[in-house]
Design goal:
Protein name: Ribosomal RNA large subunit methyltransferase G
Keywords: Cytoplasm, Methyltransferase, rRNA processing, Transferase
CATH architecture: 3-Layer(aba) Sandwich
Number of helices: 2
InterPro entries: DNA_methylase_N6_adenine_CS, RsmC/RlmG, SAM-dependent_MTases_sf, Small_mtfrase_dom
GO molecular function: N-methyltransferase activity; nucleic acid binding; S-adenosylmethionine-dependent methyltransferase activity
Largest sheet: 4 strands, mixed
Radius of gyration: 13 Å
Domain Methyltransferase small: 2-84
Shape: globular
Distance between the termini: 31 Å
CATH topology: Rossmann fold
Order of helices and strands: EEEHEHEE
Number of domains: 1
CATH class: Alpha Beta
């Protein structure tokens, strides 16, 4: 486990797995602007075939962003409050 600021000290392509619960509040205000930065950082850190597991409040609907930024994304679990999504970084093309 590494505690870091968006993985700034983690080398590119060095992780098989990243776990993420992006913050979405600034004080009492909902602000989801940090999430795309964290998704991009995770994508950078992942090896091809590596996975990003993200838990987020279901109403935020991050799945399209995860698919666009990281790669194919599936829902691993969901209830009215939370979603767990698994995004896989595509394998490198030869």
């Amino acid at each position: 486990m590494v505690r870091d600021d968006a993985g700034s000290t983690v080398p590119d392509g060095s992780a098989d797995l990243v776990l993420l619960n992006p913050p979405f509040h600034t004080g009492a205000t909902v602000h989801a602007g940090l999430a795309p930065r964290l998704f991009a950082a995770a994508a950078r850190m992942l090896r091809p075939g590596g996975q990003l597991w993200t838990v987020y409040n279901s109403p935020l609907g991050y799945r399209p962003q995860l698919t666009r930024i990281v790669g194919p994304t599936r829902e691993a679990g969901r209830n009215a409050k939370f979603t767990v999504a698994v995004s896989t970084k595509p394998e490198s093309r030869a």
